[in-house]
Structures are given as C-alpha cells and as structure tokens.
Amino acid sequence: MLNYKQLHHFWSVARAGGITRASERSGLAPQTLSGQITALETTLGVSLFRRQGRRLVLTETGSMVLDYAEEIFRLGAELEDAVHSSAAGRTLPFRVGVADVVPKAIAYVLLAPAMALTEPFRIICRESKLDQLLGELAVHKLDVVLADSPLPPNMDVRGYSHKLGESAVGFFATPALAGTLKGSFPRCLDGAPLLLPGAEASVRRPLLRWLEDHKIRPRIVGEFDDSALMKAFGEAGAGIFPTPSLIGDEVCTKHGVRCLGLAETVKEAFYAISVERRLTHPAVRAISSAAPMRGEADEAVG
Q1: What is the CA 173 to chain-centroid distance, rounded?
Q2: Is it the case that residue 293 has pLDDT exceeding 70?
Q3: CA nearest 129: which of 164, 95, 101?
Q4: pLDDT at residue 297 above 60?
Q5: Taking the domains of the chain in order of start, what are their residue ranges?
Q6: pLDDT given for residue 1 in this prediction
Q7: Is there a contact between 6 and 40 (Cβ–Cβ < 8 Å)?
Q8: String of b and e for 262-290 (b: at least 16 CB within 10 Å)?
Q9: Topology of 91-159+274-289 in CATH?
Q10: Which class is 4-86 in CATH?
Q11: CA-to-CA distance for 174 and 258, rounded, in angstroms?
C-alpha cells in the first residue's frame, strides 16, 4: 500500500530541486529524505530520480508520479481549507461542470435549489465538452457534471448518473417565419428551414427519427453545439429551432418567438453525474432531491 508520508517527501524533494534544498526547507536530515525516497521506490518498484552530474533529475516515471502527487496534495489542501471554511462559516465552493449541449436556462432551473440553501456556497460553473468535464470530475476538480445523457460506457471514468428530469421538445420560430409556413403542425415543418443541435447532443437522433417517422423533410440550414447560439440564430429568423418545452415560455419571452408545436414522443433528459453513488455534497443533494423526476443512481460506469 502506498505510504503517503514517503510520497510527500518525494514531492518536497522534486519541488525543491534536490535533497539538500528540501532538507533546508523541511528541517529534516538529508539521510532521512533519501531513505524515505528509497523506500517509496522500493514500494513502487521503479526509480524516481537519476543522477545527472551532481544533480538529481526526475525519471520519466518520476515525472508521472510527481503529477499525481501534485494533484493528491492539492486536493488535500483543498479538503483542509473546506473543513476550516465550514467551521468558520465561510462560503464553500460548489464546482459544477455544464456540458455545452445543455441549455443555459435548463442549467439554471436544475441548479436553483442549490442556490436556495441556507449554507453559504459559492457556485463555480464551467462549460465545456462532456468528455473534458468528466476528466475533471474524475480528478475531483468538479463536484458534479450536468449533461443531457448518462455517463458514456466507453469513458475511462468511474461514476454514477443521477437522472434529474426530462422534457418534451418543442419547435419555435419567429412570428414572421411562422407566417410563411404552410399547413398545421407538424406538416408545416416540411421544407421549412430548420436549425438542429450538434452531433454530440443526445436529442439530435430522436429528433431526426421523429421527423422521418412523420415523413417530414425540412431544410437543415444550421447545426450548433451551443444551444444559446442556436437560439440566437432562431431569434434572427434564420430557421425553426427545437428546445425543451420545460423552458418554452421563457424562450418565447426572451427571444420573441412562438411555439409551433411539440414532438411529444421526443424527450430530452438531464443528468447529474458524480463520482459517488450516495451523494454527500449538500448542494448536489439539493439539486437531486428537488429534481422533477429523481430516482436511484444508474449503475457505475468505468
């Protein structure tokens, strides 16, 4: 089993650039530090340093171990700070990753219960591609990731998917564009300009299947990874765009559009992905318990 005291001595020597300097900073004898590093190398079965003249330099494996050690002790310092902050009544960080395919308004709806907690929290939101956010979740740089799909089975990340809810999908257009359409919904979509979510959005394939099932062939004039950008194009009249009906009223008010109709059988779901099955972070528990369709976590993946 890894001895974290030995790892800390290795980390100190690597950061200081040598045993002598690390000894001066820590007050420990050089022989003690050297012995601890030798013990760690024996445990790991590899050499972490090599001699280069009078200096010690990291081996390739040593560099890898240093990267892990940096992350381990960064998290340790963060844990200590979080505990002290809680005891002192200071705000604690709540670090959320939001997949870029999740509509901003939906993200707010899902996170609002955490903002209403009496405990002092400071929410830190990061938006990016799902795979990048899951990588940060795996090394505990994030507390939770909001996504439109559960944890992909091909990801090298062990985690759990907690379903927060789902919504039917509506089609929206400016009044001017809606006035040019012929027939009732959904036939009015046939031949009409349509904006679609990008290939990574989980709702894209069900939408295309729904259109095919109804024998509707719109003109796809744009595809967008960012749902906000898609709505901006829709607001400008570039095309009809789909969005969850859960935020339909807000979309109509904000973007000056109206709902043409709903694809009732197309559901867009939303998930909180965590590295723990039983949620412990108070803010994550809040958004899970307040979710409109909460349930048991999916089985671990990874």
Answers
A1: 30
A2: no
A3: 101
A4: no
A5: 4-86, 91-159+274-289, 166-269
A6: 79
A7: yes
A8: bbeebebbbbbbbbeeebebebbebbbeb
A9: D-Maltodextrin-Binding Protein; domain 2 (3.40.190)
A10: mainly alpha
A11: 6
Identical fold between 91-159+274-289 and 166-269: yes
State yes or no: cis peptide before 186, omega within 30 of 0.
Answer: yes
d(CA 169, CA 202): 12
Instruction: Return d(Cα 20, Cα 10) in angstroms, integer.
Output: 13
With 0.70 as the threshold, say if the pTM is over it.
Answer: no
pLDDT digits (tens, 9 = 90+) for 251-288: 999 999 999 999 989 999 999 898 876 666 777 777 87
Specify the pLDDT at position 245.
94
Given a contact cutoff of 8 angstroms between Cβ atoms, the answer to whether 224 and 148 are in contact is no
Residue 145: strand pairing partners:
97, 273
- The identity of residue 220, as a single letter, is I
Encode the chain in three state secondary structure: CCCHHHHHHHHHHHHHCCHHHHHHHHCCCHHHHHHHHHHHHHHHCCCCEEEECCEEEECHHHHHHHHHHHHHHHHHHHHHHHHHHHHHCCCEEEEEEEECCCCHHHHHHHHHHHHCCCCCEEEEEEEECHHHHHHHHHCCCCCEEEECCCCCCCCCCCEEEEEEEEEEEEEEECHHHHCCCCCCCCHHHCCCEEEEECCCCCCHHHHHHHHHHCCCCCEEEEEECCHHHHHHHHHCCCCEEEEEHHHHHHHHHHHCCEEEEEEEEEEEEEEEEECCCCCCCHHHHHHHHCCCCCCCCCCCEC
Q: Is the pLDDT of residue 87 over 90?
A: no
Amino acid at 208: L
Q: Please count the residues of the chain.
A: 302
What's the CATH class of domain 166-269? alpha beta
Rounded to whole angstroms, what are the CA distances from 65 to 11, 47, 295?
Answer: 9, 11, 39
